[in-house]
Amino acid sequence: MVSKDVKADDVVATLGDVCAARGLDALTARLAALQTLLAGDLAEVEAALAVVAKNGGTPAHESARHLLELGGKRLRPICVALASHVGSGFTPAALTFAVAVEMIHNATLLHDDVVDLGDRRRGADTARVVYGNAASIFGGDWLLAEALCRVQAAGVEGVLDRMLVVVREMVTAETLQLAARGRVRTSTSEYFKIVQGKTASLFQWAMFAGGRAGGVGTRECEALESYGGMLGLAFQIVDDVLDFAGDPEATGKDLLTDLREGKMTYPLLLAVERDPGLADELEANCRGDEVSVTPEIARRIGRVMSEGGVVQDCLALATRMCRDAAQSLEILPASQARSALQDVALATPLRRK
Amino acid sequence: MVSKDVKADDVVATLGDVCAARGLDALTARLAALQTLLAGDLAEVEAALAVVAKNGGTPAHESARHLLELGGKRLRPICVALASHVGSGFTPAALTFAVAVEMIHNATLLHDDVVDLGDRRRGADTARVVYGNAASIFGGDWLLAEALCRVQAAGVEGVLDRMLVVVREMVTAETLQLAARGRVRTSTSEYFKIVQGKTASLFQWAMFAGGRAGGVGTRECEALESYGGMLGLAFQIVDDVLDFAGDPEATGKDLLTDLREGKMTYPLLLAVERDPGLADELEANCRGDEVSVTPEIARRIGRVMSEGGVVQDCLALATRMCRDAAQSLEILPASQARSALQDVALATPLRRK
Questions:
Q1: Is pLDDT of A6 > 50?
Q2: Quick one: pLDDT at residue B248?
Q3: A278/chain B closest Cα distance in angstroms
Q4: What is the CATH number of the domain that holds B188?
């Protein structure tokens, strides 16, 4: 239990460290306050996640447990918790939704790792490496089914309906992403369509469900959802940037993984736009839907990412989105939770893992 | 369209043919009447299934389309349709549920084939052979998500809630079945637990949802559900028998597939009980969780299946269950639909594909 609490604290602490390292003292201090605000809630979430798949006793449940125990940023539960504090606070329904949103997220990761034949995640072997593909497929199915039952049992009007639509949106985005693999000449609108479905929609749901669980009114819930959508897009853009410019020690995964898997992310699309010959070189190195990354390709991409200003421009876009996200909460009455959500948004483009 | 209609008719016609071949003239005549009763409904189901995954345009959607187009017995939609006729008939909600139940069933098959590395189904290459494992995983996810959204949109009270619980039951059974693979010395209670979750629960839901869509009352819906549960168990036992005693031409899959995949079905459990040395021989031929079926093992199993009376006893049990299923409908007022359901139950242990 104690170690779980520490892990939950770490999440917010990491955002704080990053800010501190960059001299953003005021933001650091505010994120420390956020940590105090959420410590109890996140400890409850961790305690609940720790037992989710513990008693299943099958390799599929072990897969789910393995992934859940590796932690992760828990940003979606943080969204649920903060949204609930915009209303009456972290109710039992909010706890249910915070746990469910992390279960759904992990369900998609289990299937993604089988689909991508991924070996490493969160600095450890993936569940499929430890327990096999079959266990990961059924582990993902089980996490999804269990999460839906929990959301249903919470009985908060409209929340399950929205969840089902979001799950369909997420899966549809995964089908599009799979179809687009290895297609070097794709469009930014295709990229944003995929990211909206794959990432932003679940952040939107987290904010909506948290708000509803805290008894927040319809108009305010719409603002929370809008925040969630923009935060989710920005979060994914930063994630995609970290594939090229991250520290594998911190992110827990190798560099250029997206590229090798033939996934054209926003930074890559900008890179191809600024170095037109790059598309030909990538296509020439496509094997099936994967890209064989030669040292020349890695160097060429590294150059356009830094000297061509791609990383800078991606982070600028993410920053703009996060400012819009923070701005969208201005219709809410001022509160500690509102400020905390705005701080989370402002810290998101600064994250390094 | 026309070919689809023919396919739907075929399903019921097949049950009729079997009965005719065995001299059960009265049952044959009644199943012909059933065919007339359902022809319109099943044509609507086929038309709807034909467009389910047509416009997705990704390999995942193609996987789903591939499997749905191969047909199958459509027994679950038949259950929905007949249950609806116990009430006011095949309403738009009943059509939605009939389509959704087949989508859910096919979603599980897509994942099963990836988990089992299955190459053939319904007499054709599996979707994973044609479109790959990744497309089949996301194809299954998509079918499930889409089916849940459709059930939700139908807005019939209690039907979505029950569906979610059933999906969790099905997935849990799959996790148990996977965990039990290659374990030769398992129990019949474990077998029935798996079959209840994997097969019977969805038949129960089909009957419940059809009844609710037709406005059938609570007590009558319970009888329909009870029928569905027993029919589902019997259906699965017959399926498992056909793995040993079926005609691959008719069933569309090779003999002894379950055995090779290390799945201890009811006939196998009886076989091991009646020929105790068989367990040792199976264990000696286990490679991981698969059984390498030597000609000696095949002969030995064939002997106990026929001379040891295993096939006969399994079919006797299925027949008893089907009689109980038919019996459970006696609380309903007499109607053409009730008789038809009873006939479907009586014909189930006679099916040969």
A1: no
A2: 77
A3: 26
A4: 1.10.600.10
